Amino acid sequence: MRDLSAWRRALPVALILALLVVTEAGLIAQNLGTAPQTNVAVQGQTGAQPEGTWLNLINWVGNVVAPVGAGGAALAAIASFAAGRGFSRWAFTAIGLLMVSGLTRLLEFWIQQGTGGIS
Description:
Number of strands: 0
Low-confidence stretches: none
Mean pLDDT: 75
Oligomer: single chain
Number of helices: 3
Largest sheet: none
Distance between the termini: 71 Å
Shape: elongated
Strand content: under 5%
C-alpha cells in the first residue's frame, strides 16, 4: 500500500515536468527569428494552393502527430512490460506510427519535388 501512495504523490510532479518540457519545445520550435512569416503556408506558396495545404497537413501528421503518438505508445509498452502485462500491441503501435511518420515524410519529399514544375 505504501508504494501506491508514493506513485500518487509523484505522478502530478512528473506530469508538470512533462508539460514544461513540451511547452518549452513548442516555444523554441515557433521561433522564426526577427522576421515573422505571415500568409505563407509553404516556401513560395500560399495556403490557398493545394500543394501548400497538403504539404502543411503532411508535415503536421508526419512531424508531430505520429512521432508523439509513437512516444506515448512506447511509454505504454514499457509500463505494460513493467506491470507484467502484454506489451506487444503497444510496441507494434509505436512501430506502426513511426512507419506512418516515415511514409508522410516520403510524401512530403514527393510534393516538394512536384511543385517545381516540369523542367
